[in-house]
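step 3/5: co-fold with protoporphyrin IX containing FE
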Amino acid sequence: MSEQQSRCPVIHFDHHSPEHAADTVGAYSKLRSESPVAWTESYGGYWVLSNYKSVFEASRNDDLFSSARHDEYGGEGLSVTIPKAPTAFHIPIELDPPDFRPFRKAVNQVTAPAAVKKLDSVIKHYVTGFIDEIIESGEADLAFVAGVPAAVTVHWLGLDAAKYQNYVNAMHTLVSAAPGSAEYRHAAEVAVPWVSNTVREHIAKRRADPTDDATSHFIKTPVDGRDMTDDEVYSILELVISGGVGTTASLVTQALVWLYQNPEDRQRLIDNPELVDVATEEFLRVFSPTQALARTIMQDADFQGCPVRKGDRALLAWASANRDPEQFENPDTVDITRWPNRHVSFGLGIHRCAGSHLGKAMAREMLRQVLGRMGDYVVDLDKVVTYPDQGTNAGYHSIPVTFTPGTRLNDTPLFADAE
Ligand code: HEM
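step 4/5: write tokens
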């Protein structure tokens, strides 16, 4: 083997395979230590970047690692997944600079900390209401509570929050089910068209009669001195639904299962709810709800000693970078007080998650209320169901729990106006 082949070997790797799903941490740990930049032939071939350094450098080099759609490389569909998912064009995640900037600015205006602060009462309403639905029975599926991010996001956009499950079925399934599975096909053929029609009708309604919701914000905010088209507004809305809904649920459900398995840390957070903020950063690091996303290489180059070629696809494994021992001391130890914590669970560089403040605000409220109101929950670990595919999004489909019944806090129905 030449020096280059041993540095950039061809490996057997498929991040959507059952073997990978069975042990994502082990698989990435082996890759990171043996071949942090490697090539696999799966899905037409792609580079796998698994150490912090390569993920960091790729995500900060938009000229070489493009996020834009290039149908001629890797086929049609969402550019940031491998294989490309059959979604509409997503803005701003599928734009490179300079087109990217005005759209990202428009998104930032409704996702910055001050804007998220205004959503405090909405977040509290849905977290309280979802827990109210189960609190008296003493048994539940914790994955139900994970409907909160979907309801909040849909409400924030001015859509009907009561239909939150339809949005989950559509957008989240495309990035959590195995490509080609029956569930995935149903999402692509039935659920996604429903979302598309409903959201497009909503945009038309708000164009005619704007309100103060996030959809109206995008309709009213100019980019490069002109209004956004309906297609552009749709591209943003579909992205925030698909990007915001599953990720936050994944973070909270993984944290809750881990806290059940680690009762001392659970008790510590119950006794000191103010520690939840810092603990959430560690849960983000070790559970990496978005495990890995993709880019397209724009020119022949040497990257970390490896010969990347124009048109090659590359997978940036955030989950693996988050456990790189060169960046994090004792990376496989979950330390709920770890600080500073420079995890890359929200990505890095210009595309770093626009919804990080919203995601964290929802996650913290969900963790605090579950721990405060049903903190003695017992997880039936034999019946827990994880996503069969953990390649893009890690998480649970089902988490059966029992707990000491409690009392409802709200008399208003869950889907009454949250303002
Ligand atoms: C724990 C929760 C979340 C995680 C782990 C997460 C993860 C990520 C990651 C890794 C990226 C980088 C994409 C890339 O580099 O290609 C991203 C981008 C993005 N996320 Fe999130 N996300 C979360 C919550 C949310 C929420 C709640 C929203 C809703 C507003 C959201 C909206 C977005 C948007 C709009 C982008 C694209 C940003 C851009 O391209 O400039 N995310 N997210």
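step 5/5: annotate
The chain has one domain: 3-402.
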